[in-house]
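In response to the reviewer comment on reproducibility (Comment 2.3), we provide here a single inverse folding case reported in full, input and output, so that an independent group could reproduce the run without further information from us. The structure tokens appear first.
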């Protein structure tokens, strides 16, 4: 089987980044969301990203045009009938994801692979609501998608070897490095990253140091590109909390207990960069 057409479900930050890198790798791409305005916002963000590449001399103007021509805005889920691969990047909520996968299972052709960009939810459970669990897999891209090299590929319990290999190939085609993991809560990336972020929040909560100091220590001392609190703001504090809850529920272990300060910020609507306020303030 050959993947030619990819449909990305969800035109938010992750979905539009995924659509962008797929279109840059010569795939025909549908960028799908529920409302026209969401899709337009995603398309505009891609267009801006590509324009910046042209300004920097990293992309020719006609290449940008060709990439944009390979991108097709969609609000009609029936477009899934044209897809060889669907990559779901909707909100991190099991009910929403399973609804989307049930719908895709009906609409997409039999040969199509259904992938989820979930950052911590079980692929095996998502696959179980479809009639093609062997063709369901996790493709966990990192934010910002155009910059980050990794795609964590999660094998569900029933994912076939052939599907895994094909997804590994597509990942390489889009210029990323695939790394294989099995299906356990938080996979590898967030099982390790989120407890570190949560611990940084505990350190702040307990008054060990100011946010700037915590971040500076991890940046200069460990060579991290961003300190953990800046990174939490960048990811979204609601997402961080949701992932910690998924880890705590999945493993039943107190070491994954979300810091009360994280809960408090999320309750206040302090969600990080996207809401203008988290551990830092943004304009
Ligand atoms: N979208 C696209 N490109 C971006 C970008 C964005 N949001 N932000 C920065 N870039 C590009 C810049 O244009 C620049 O490109 P060029 O080299 O072509 O000029 C390049 O990235 C470097 O940017 P800057 O010089 O402005 O800034 P920087 O060197 O500080 O890098 C960063 C920015 C890449 C975001 C870096 O700070 C970083 O790597 N941070 C950590 C990111 C990270 O850990 N991501 C994973 C989050 S966890 C996750 O995604 C999974 C999950 O499930 C929660």
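Designed residues, in position order:
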């Amino acid at each position: 089987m050959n993947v030619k057409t990819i449909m990305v479900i969800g035109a938010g930050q992750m979905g539009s980044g995924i659509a962008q890198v797929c279109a840059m790798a010569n795939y025909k791409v549908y960028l799908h969301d529920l409302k026209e305005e969401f899709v337009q916002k995603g398309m505009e963000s891609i267009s801006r990203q590509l324009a910046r590449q042209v300004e920097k001399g990293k992309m020719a103007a006609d290449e940008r045009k060709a990439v944009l021509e390979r991108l097709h805005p969609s609000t009609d889920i029936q477009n899934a009938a044209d897809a060889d691969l669907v990559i779901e990047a909707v909100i991190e909520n099991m009910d929403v994801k399973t609804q989307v996968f049930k719908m895709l299972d009906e609409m997409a052709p039999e040969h199509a692979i259904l992938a989820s960009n979930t950052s911590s939810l079980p692929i095996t459970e998502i696959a179980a609501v479809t009639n093609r669990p062997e063709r369901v897999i996790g493709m966990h891209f990192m934010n910002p998608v155009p910059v980050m090299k990794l795609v964590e590929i999660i094998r569900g319990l029933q994912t076939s070897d052939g599907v895994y290999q094909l997804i590994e190939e597509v990942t390489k085609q889009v210029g990323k490095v695939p790394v294989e993991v099995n299906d356990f809560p938080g996979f590898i990336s967030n099982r390790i990253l989120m407890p570190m972020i949560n611990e940084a929040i505990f350190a702040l909560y307990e008054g060990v140091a100011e946010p700037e100091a915590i971040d500076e220590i991890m940046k200069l001392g460990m060579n991290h590109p961003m300190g953990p609190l800046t990174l939490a703001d960048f990811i979204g504090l609601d997402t961080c909390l949701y992932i910690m809850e998924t880890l705590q529920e999945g493993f039943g272990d107190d070491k994954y207990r979300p810091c009360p300060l994280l809960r408090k910020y999320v309750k206040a609507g302090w969600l990080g960069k996207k809401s203008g306020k988290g551990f830092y303030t943004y304009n």
